[in-house]
UniProtKB/TrEMBL annotation:
UniProt-listed SMART domains: Aamy
Glycosyl hydrolase family 13 catalytic domain span: 24-433
GO molecular function annotations of the record: hydrolase activity
Keyword annotations from UniProtKB, A to Z: Hydrolase
Classification of source organism: Bacteria, Bacillati, Actinomycetota, Actinomycetes, Kitasatosporales
Keyword Hydrolase: yes
SUPFAM superfamilies from the UniProt entry: (Trans)glycosidases
Stated name of the protein: Glycoside hydrolase family 13 protein
CDD domains, alphabetized: AmyAc_OligoGlu_TS
Protein family: Belongs to the glycosyl hydrolase 13 family.
Protein source organism: Streptomyces virens
Pfam families: Alpha-amylase (PF00128)
Domain of life assignment: Bacteria
Length: 563
């Protein structure tokens, strides 16, 4: 069905991604076609008309490859196939063809830092023994101690515990995540060439771009002797050195790998595109987004910022400057498959830290008590703010329905390895991965003809797309109208702040884009005067010439700015 007021970017538009709206699908939780409780590729295909009507430009699929699900699909056993529980390559091809008929592009997740321990290469490595060519594709080392009984280094896993596991012949292998996710050795030319083959495999099937998981982790300093980290064992971006000298993360050598990828991307017409998941310092992020590298990088500063005008002003300015330096555009994200949904984050006290939110999950979302109506109101305001910014907006499935985090999942239902690996100190990411509600009723609220692999709340049906569709006050219709308008309003990639900076300290963000498009966000508890102009859309009902608290409005004026 047609879904745009203006033509979708043509298949040969090399810059389609620069200001695209990309919708992230976590396939196992999106739509279940065959009724086994797990979302699948045919389920995605069946709901593509919904995404076309929503008005997005592209659909990004989180991993759908064969996997033992040690980490929600990010433990890949075969990079060039579909998990049989999710479908077949023929199903994938039909999904791509359907997407293209609807004017949508398809992006896929690529997981290059590590494979599954079920990958044929790792099974070969286990069988081949120490010193073999098969083991050189991964990172195997002898242990320390009199009998090699100690791990080779003190490196911790990102999921808790040591980053080394011993195999029966006495050697140890590196896994910076779960033990079922052994790290590749990217110094090995065979590894590099195999990933070039994978990139071509999916590009040849019509994939337009790739989201690169753990993009900052591929190059490691594996020279003997391996370096201990000592007290510098934190993997948080602000704890990493800014000179590329960490033995594991964000090493300068990683960009040589991506220059090779760029040659693959540029062999296609239009060139394929990629966005890096790189948890690095902002000053180091631009290299991942360069035209010689992946092209774009996720801006996690925006996702992690409080809904505070002054803080957001600083983050937006910095993100746009970083993107300009890279020759790229910035990315704007409020939620994804790894974080608590932003409706719930905004429902908690404004000073809650990441650690506070993790502690809140451990109380099953009861302490502190979330103010969900306030969270929804703030999420609506944040959505209009985000969608007005220059660059690409990445939406996470269900945010257009205003879904909150399912914080009270029973411990017995948790699937995230973080829960076990942390010894129950981190509840994990299952609460944002609960399958979507499509209908008011049904065994899984329209997710599929059967149940769902994670339990859905009893009231999940009230958020269903069926319920919200046509309701002008719903979150879904706000997103639909915003995306429709955005297509008519987006012109260049510039932003101009309007008014004195001190207004941001009072909670007001006001910027203009080409054609007289103004965005005004009141992120305070007091109403403010609305500037003159034609109101195109507001995240909450307006009160005459006042912009109510926690509300964003889009206006059109006769000039591009108030200069």
């Amino acid at each position: 069905m047609p879904h745009h007021d203006s033509p979708a970017p043509s298949a040969h538009d090399a810059d389609w991604w620069r200001q695209a709206v990309v919708y992230q699908v976590y396939p196992r939780s999106f739509a279940d076609f065959d009724g086994d409780g797990i979302g699948d590729i045919r389920g995605v295909t069946s709901r593509l008309p919904y995404l076309a009507e929503l008005g997005v430009d592209a659909v990004w699929l989180s991993p759908f490859y064969p996997s033992q699900l040690a980490d929600g699909g990010y433990d890949v056993a075969d990079y060039r196939d579909v998990d049989p529980r999710l479908g077949t390559l023929d199903d994938f091809d039909e999904m791509v063809a359907t997407a293209h008929r609807l004017g949508l592009k398809i992006m896929v997740d690529i997981v290059p830092n590590h494979s599954s321990d079920q990958h044929v290469w790792f099974q070969e490595a286990l069988a081949a023994g120490p010193g073999s060519a098969a083991r050189d594709r991964y990172v195997f080392r002898d242990g320390r101690g009199s009998d090699g009984e100690l791990p080779p280094t003190d490196w911790p896993s990102s999921f808790g515990g040591p980053a080394w596991t011993r195999v029966p012949d006495g050697q140890w292998y590196l896994h910076l995540y779960a033990p079922q996710q052994p790290d590749f050795n990217w110094d090995n030319p065979e590894v590099r060439e195999d990933f070039h083959t994978t990139l071509r495999f999916w590009s040849d099937r019509g994939v337009a771009g790739f989201r690169v998981d753990v993009a900052h982790g591929l190059a490691k300093d594996l020279r003997a002797p391996l370096r201990d980290l000592g007290e510098q064992r934190s993997y948080q971006p602000d704890a990493l050195p800014d000179d590329g000298s960490h033995p594991l993360w964000d090493r300068d050598a990683v960009h040589e790998i991506y220059r090779g990828w760029r040659q693959v991307f540029d062999s296609y017409d239009p060139p394929r595109f990629a966005v890096a998941e790189a948890w690095v310092r902002p000053s180091r992020r631009t290299a991942y987004a360069s035209a010689a590298g992946l092209g774009q990088a996720f801006n996690f500063d925006f996702l992690g910022a409080r809904l505070d005008a002054a803080e957001l002003h600083t983050v937006i300015d910095g993100s746009l400057a970083d993107a300009r330096r890279a020759g790229a555009t910035s990315t704007w994200v409020l939620s994804n498959h790894d974080v608590v949904r932003h409706v719930s984050r905004y429902a908690l006290p404004a000073d809650c830290t990441k650690q506070d939110i993790e502690a809140w999950l451990l109380t099953d979302g009861r302490e502190p008590v979330p103010d969900l109506p306030a969270g929804v109101r703030r999420a609506r305001a944040a959505a209009l703010l985000m969608l007005a910014l220059p660059g690409s907006a990445y939406l996470y499935q269900g945010e257009e329905l205003g879904l909150p985090e399912v914080a009270d999942l029973d411990r017995a239902d948790l699937r995230d390895p973080m829960w076990v690996r942390s010894g129950g100190r981190v509840k994990g990411r299952d609460g944002c991965r609960v399958p979507l509600p499509w209908t008011r009723e049904g065994s899984s609220f329209g997710f599929g003809p059967g149940g769902s692999w994670l339990p859905q709340p009893a009231d999940w049906g009230r958020y269903a797309a069926e319920v919200q569709s046509g309701d002008k006050e719903s979150v879904l219709e706000l997103y639909r109208e915003a995306l429709r308008l955005r297509r008519t309003l987006v012109a260049d990639e510039e932003l101009e702040w309007v008014g004195p900076r001190e207004r941001t300290r009072r909670g007001l963000l006001h910027f203009a884009r080409a054609g007289g498009w103004h965005t005004v966000s009141n992120l305070s508890d007091e109403p403010v005067a609305l500037p003159p102009g034609e109101v195109l859309l507001a995240s909450a009902p307006l009160n005459g010439d006042e912009l109510p608290p926690w509300t964003t409005a889009w206006l059109r004026t006769g000039t591009a700015s108030d200069r």
